[in-house]
Structure formats: C-alpha cells, structure tokens
Design goal:
260 residues; alpha/beta; 4-stranded parallel β-sheet; 13 helices; 4 strands; 7% strand; SAM-dependent_MTases_sf
C-alpha cells in the first residue's frame, strides 16, 4: 500500500453540531462527483490494492460508504475470473483493509461502523446468492469475526490534526489549531495512525507468534453469544445482525485474512 488518498470532508446533523463540531452535509450527488474525479485520472483504478483511502472527518459515513461500494465492486470484478468461490470474500476483505476513517465524535464513529458493516454483509449476501445474514454467518463465523475486527480497528475515534504525526509534542501543538481538536486532545492522548499496521498485518503478526489477538477472540465470543456479550466492543453491529446459529458449516474463507 503505497498511495494514500485523504478526504477532508465533514457531515451535518443539526445547527448545534455545526457550531460544536463544524459539521456540514455533503449530498450524495457531490460525493459521486468528487469520487468520479479519481476515475478520470490516468493512473487511478478502483481495484488498485496499493491505494489506501483515508477519511479524517468521516461523520456518519457518506463518503466512506461511497468509497467502499466502488472499491469492493471493482475488486470483485478483478477477482471473479480467478476465484469464483472466494471473490466476494476477497473483495470485501481488501476493500476494508485499505480503508481508514476517523472522527472526534463517538456517535459518528458508531454510525459509520454500523453502515459499513451492513454494506459489507449486504454485498456478500448478494454475491453469494444468500437471502439473509443468518446464512452468511453460518457459512464462516471466523470471516465475520474478522469483518467486525477490521471495522473496529480501522474506523475509530481520533483527531485528524494530531493523527498524522508520530510525535506527541508536535501532535498536541497541531491540535491546538481548532477548538474541537484542542478539546479532544485535552481528554485523549495523541493517537498517530500507522497505515501499515492494518488489522490484517496485526493478525498475521500474532499468527507468527502462535497467538490470537484479543479483539478477535472477543469477536468470536460476540457471535457465539448471539450478539449479547457484556462488553460494548461491537455495539455497532448489534442492530444489523439477526439472531442466528453461529456454528461454522465447513467453509474456511476466514483464512483469506491471512493471505492479503
């Protein structure tokens, strides 16, 4: 992953949020027009797996979802002729592994995660000709656990002015440029983003040590508990998922997360 495309856009919900968070609304028509600018570039392809997308003010996910949908469809078309069985799984995994989004507002993050999770499940169900998410989860709960983890890992609460610099002193100084940023950094430590440390790279690192990431274990527990675990790590997914059996029926598409 060599190229990082960064989006500086925020979203609107109320006059209070405009005042407090600087949020404004970007209509879908403008989102599409902006993304089409990339399509017109000679060296840009939506299925280029070396490109990383970064949304530093994701709001409730308008741009994030638009990017994901274009990306996942392109990756699917790229893969379908080589692996009909796993093309949809591979496309979703790679689309998410090359997508980062942050926001200072936790409600925005929850909304964005939830929408991204729902879009991922819907894409998989459509391409696999499944009528419900229950059937999808029964096929391979490990893959769904990875899906939960990558969205939790790469869409998170953070502050954009400090997140791009791996220097705490400079990060804090940058965050003082706006009231919202300075207030956020006063309550939270700087959290610089390492775009190389994706969920996939983290999982592979644990595999090399014969260990399992704690987050992944929590995700499996969340699925096995029928989405009713006491911790709130995956609250964003509870409203999306239906009650279902979580036993694996044999497919092992979860291994794809170790092959990206």
């Amino acid at each position: 992953m060599e190229r990082i495309i960064q989006f500086n856009n925020v979203h609107h919900r109320s006059k209070e949020r405009i005042k407090d968070l600087g949020e404004v609304f970007t209509p879908d028509i403008y989102v599409d027009a902006m993304l089409n600018l990339f399509t017109n570039e000679n060296n840009f392809f939506w299925d280029d797996e070396e490109i990383v997308f970064f949304e530093p003010c994701c709001g409730h996910g308008n741009i994030v979802i638009a990017i994901f949908l274009k990306r996942v469809e392109a990756l699917y078309e790229k893969t379908i002729n080589h692996s009909n069985e796993y093309a949809a799984y591979y496309a979703v995994a790679n689309a998410l592994n090359t997508l980062w989004a942050i926001d200072v507002d936790q409600d925005n993050i929850t909304d964005c995660r939830s929408r991204l999770f729902k879009a991922s499940l819907a894409f998989l169900a459509e391409k696999l000709n499944l009528t419900d998410y229950d059937s999808l989860i029964k096929r391979d709960k490990e893959y769904i656990a990875h899906l939960l983890c990558v969205i939790k890992w790469q869409v998170h609460e953070n502050e954009m002015l400090s997140a791009m610099i791996n220097n705490k002193q400079q990060s804090r100084a940058n965050a003082q440029k706006t009231r919202v940023s300075s207030e956020w950094i006063a309550e939270n430590d700087p959290n610089p983003i390492n775009f190389q440390k994706t969920w996939v790279s983290n999982f592979i690192k644990h595999q090399s040590k014969n260990t399992t990431p704690i987050l992944f274990r929590h995700a499996l527990k969340f699925i096995d508990s029928r989405y009713q675990t006491k911790n709130c790590l995956f609250d964003f997914a509870q409203g999306v998922l239906v009650k279902s059996s979580t036993q694996n029926t044999g497919m092992n598409s979860g291994e794809l997360w170790s092959r990206i």
